[in-house]
Amino acid sequence: MKQSYDETALLTQLQQTWYQTIPASQFMQVRPLSFTDQEFSVTAPLAPNVNLHQTMFAGSIYTLMTLTGWGMVWLQQQLAEIDGDIVLADAHIRYIAPIDAAPVAITTWAGADLSVLQRGKRARIPLTVELFCADKLSAVFDGVFISLPKSSA
Amino acid sequence: MKQSYDETALLTQLQQTWYQTIPASQFMQVRPLSFTDQEFSVTAPLAPNVNLHQTMFAGSIYTLMTLTGWGMVWLQQQLAEIDGDIVLADAHIRYIAPIDAAPVAITTWAGADLSVLQRGKRARIPLTVELFCADKLSAVFDGVFISLPKSSA
Q1: Which residue of chain B is at minimal alpha-carbon distance from A94?
Q2: In CATH, which superfamily holds the domain spanning A7-148?
Q3: Taking CB atoms and an 8 Å limit, are B88 and A53 in contact across chains?
Q4: What is the pLDDT of residues A2-16, one digit of tens each?
Q5: Are B24 and A24 in contact (CB under 8 A)?
Q6: Ramachandran quadrant class, A86 (left: phi over 0; alpha: psi -120 to 50; beta: rest)
Q7: Are A56 and A92 in contact (CB under 8 A)?
Q8: Do B67 and A88 touch (CB under 8 A)?
Q9: How far is residue B24's CA from residue B15's CA, in Å, rounded to a whole number?
Q10: How far is residue B81's CA from residue B113's CA, in Å, rounded to a whole number?
Q11: Closest by Cβ to B22, choosing from A52, A70, A87
Q12: Domain residues of chain B, as ranges?
């Protein structure tokens, strides 16, 4: 089935949004990889994100996974042509294994109802993000994102 | 009661350890504030840590609180003259209010047993970190740190 959106253009716009508004995302070199079939993946190189054990810093792992979840909500809002200010309310992260190469964070859209935003209500979006390093599950993030209706001018 | 340690020297050494081994901590300008009476506090300026709402980015908030907890374990190991590799196993964070000025993260030592490290066993250290912005509680972090005995050469 042909996609009804331009994946490359969307991911370019998302990365620009991150880099222009969140300086830490640019420092970490966070980069969207792909967005297809309701699955969104993101990566970041190890060099700017190491800790003193020469593996990936716990704070960078969390930030990569947070941006993956935030990015998924942003992408879904773009597809639905719905506007909303996305914030993270709550998150739990479990570190499973040290990460010694550029990892891939992956999340899948479970189908939250974004149309409430058009009625001036906030949307609550729980998302799970999994982090893989060389195909090994290395961290799991469960977050609750909230999208707030933008007040009209 | 007079402290039996040099607070300034310890905090300088901690900041150097962070900046030399965790590039993200230097980019974020994370800075230890004080360590007295089992209480440790850390700050970071808003500028390198903003998001697109011009408040503090969720990933930076988490990283600041993670480093506060990690730093507390490091400080306690220094005082006890015990060595150990400190990692974060698990964490939960709750965001309470947007942060629009440099916040202060504070944690208190509850007295975990670090002496197990000297017997070659890992120490498990649960820590709560609270984040205040202009005296208002803005985020709460509960993490479980693990300190691993260093293998002798």
Answers
A1: B90
A2: Hotdog Thioesterase (3.10.129.10)
A3: no
A4: 567 899 999 999 999
A5: yes
A6: beta
A7: no
A8: no
A9: 12
A10: 13
A11: A52
A12: 7-148
